[in-house]
Amino acid sequence: MSETFVLIPGRTSKQGCGISEGKFKENYQREINTLQVASEDMQRLNLADGDRVRLTSEAGQVEVAVTAAKKGELPTGILFIAYGDLSSRLMAADTHGSGMPTSKGMDVKLEKIS
Amino acid sequence: MSANADTTSTASSGELKVVQDAACTFCGCVCDDIELKVEGHTIKEAKRACVLGKAWFLNHEPEEGPSCRIEGQPATVDEGIERAAQILCDAKYPQVYGLSDSPCEAQRKAVGIADWIGGIIDTTTSVCHGPSGMALQGVGEVTCTLGEVMNRGDLIIFWGSNPAESHPRHFTRYSLMPKGLFTPNGRKDRTCVNIDVRKTKSANAADIFIQIKPRRDFEALWTLRALSRGISLDGDLVERDTGVPLATWQDLMDRMKACKFGVIFFGMGLTMTRGKHANTEALLALTRDMNAHTRFVVNANRGHGNVSGADNVVTWRTGYPFGVNLARGYPRFNPGEYTTSDTFARGEADAALIIASDPMANFSEAARQHLARIPFIALDPKETPTTRAATVAFTVATYGINSPGTVYRMDDVPIPLRPAFDSPHPSDFDLLSKLEQRVKEIKAAAY
Ligand code: SF4
Predict the structure, then answer these.
(1) Which atom of ligand 1 is nearest to the CA of B30?
(2) A108, A9 in Cβ contact below 8 A?
């Protein structure tokens, strides 16, 4: 079973602090490797905090742990992840003549893997 | 360049040093009111810094290990410079990239190197506010400094930007809370509107939150442009396209027309999403439209500490802000063709000089794979996926903490850096000066 979502990668203060602490350290790695999902979507897809899902975009595929987004922060159908290695792997290379790959608002398929 | 000692004082113990008015370069706010307490090579306290600024200052200790590695093996800086110069001079299509966390003086050297090797100079602007730079060239930009925002702004709109997490002192130091000349009551004199696809922490600080559909910024902005001119719109269509009722947009437009000094701060919610420069062009044009009714300005919330400096320096030197090809001896600007993400992903660049940025973590898979295949040089204060993969990796002093220079705040106001202590590693400026000198010698000998 897979379902299509819109993925919004973005900055978080934890990710920002993690850059200063060191990109190979735990805080940064945990932040960029956690996907936020609206709690309504979590319930509907029978997902619990820490479950792993596979995200597939037109450019790539990653596996990531999920956590419920803060209440009211994410509308259903939208996923959030802190900028980092995983979000970049899902980004297509084409910049449409702008120099900027489409790094936000990507269509991704989500499927539960554990 | 030597460290600025004017504003530092050493306690009688000789151990504790206080640096007044240090500038934090973690984000584009470049807060220059930070008080640092320094003991040896450790910053013990960073007064007035936000959570990101504290992490920036308090985690800073010079990296252990050598200042240079060649193919992973320790080397002297001179050996590294020699190898780097040879790589760059042998290349046919070299790319110089990064620069947004480096002072203007070092950026200037990097442009010089790109010129000498007939390469491309590009900065991280191309993957953050590059589309804003393109829009600016198309329709201009009505803007002002953050000081004017503080003193005059009574309607503050954030669009696709979440400063509560990315620029935590934005609200308190510049845009919402401070008491200004024409805003004597601070926050009470301002209305704050937040427009985004999700209800971020910044939305909680706003009086009005407008949640639009993802990828519909362009439609929303043109809805406002139409309303600014009094054009009647089909309510059903507007709601279907933007996810927001027409009445909400009309209410916002009424407020925009009625305010005395409106300010729109925008972020990568506009530049990184479908539409990119078409989105930012619509926003800059909307701001221009609003000046038929009242005073209105727009500012990009820039991310890195000196990304605005990079735009300024590259523009002074070449006439264009980023993605500039100097191969023919004169500058050519073409986003999409000369921008780094593209030249890497298409497999075109045959060598690279990466300064203070991490494309191995932030670029698309195709771009990363190509970078891994070509010889490249990386300069960074910390170990990153990019420095790990570099042919020649230099560990450098951290700007603002160890090395001096000038940075440009997000509103293009230049700010001097006041470093806290010396680093055992060379600064970007020192290294790039040496590299430029060696490149010049090799090129001169080849004539
Ligand atoms: S808002 Fe930005 S510049 Fe100011 S202290 Fe925080 S991270 Fe540093």
Answers:
(1) 3
(2) no
Nearest CA in chain A to B304: A16
Q: Which of B248, B246, B254 is nearest to B293 (CA)?
A: B254
Nearest CA to ligand 1 atom 8: B53
The CATH class of B68-128+305-413+424-445 is alpha beta
Which residue from B162, B336, B385 is facing A98, i.e. has the nearest CB? B336
Give, as one character, the DSSP assignment of residue B292: T
- C-alpha distance from residue B422 to each of B241, B306, B402 (Å): 55, 20, 5
Residues in chain B: 447
**What's the CA gap between B205 and B187, in Å, rounded?**
10
Encoded tokens for B285: 């044009």
Q: Where are the domains of chain A?
A: 2-112
- In tens, the pLDDT along B147-169 reads 999 999 999 999 999 999 999 99
Fold assignment, A2-112: Barwin-like endoglucanases (2.40.40)
Ligand 1 closest atom vs CA B167 = 1
Cβ contact A93–B126 (<8 Å): no
Closest Cα to atom 4 of ligand 1: B31
Q: Which CATH superfamily is domain B130-300 in?
A: Dimethylsulfoxide Reductase, domain 2 (3.40.228.10)
B68-128+305-413+424-445 against B130-300: fold identical:
no
A42-84 pLDDT tens trace: 999 999 999 999 999 999 999 999 999 998 899 999 999 999 9
**Which pLDDT tens digit goes with each residue over B187-224?**
999 999 999 999 999 999 999 999 999 999 999 999 99
The nearest alpha carbon in chain A to B164 belongs to A13
Backbone phi and psi for residue B35, each to the nearest 5 degrees, phi listed first:
-105, 120
**Closest residue in chain B to residue A86, using alpha carbons only:** B361
Q: Which two tokens stand for residue B308?
A: 């605005």
Strands (DSSP E) found in B187-335: 191-196, 208-211, 261-266, 295-300, 324-325, 332-333
Element (H, E) at B284: helix B277-290
Q: How far is CA B39 from CA B34, B58, B105, B421, in A?
A: 16, 11, 28, 9
Closest-lying ligand 1 atom to the alpha carbon of residue B29: 3
| Domain regions of chain B by residue span | 68-128+305-413+424-445, 130-300
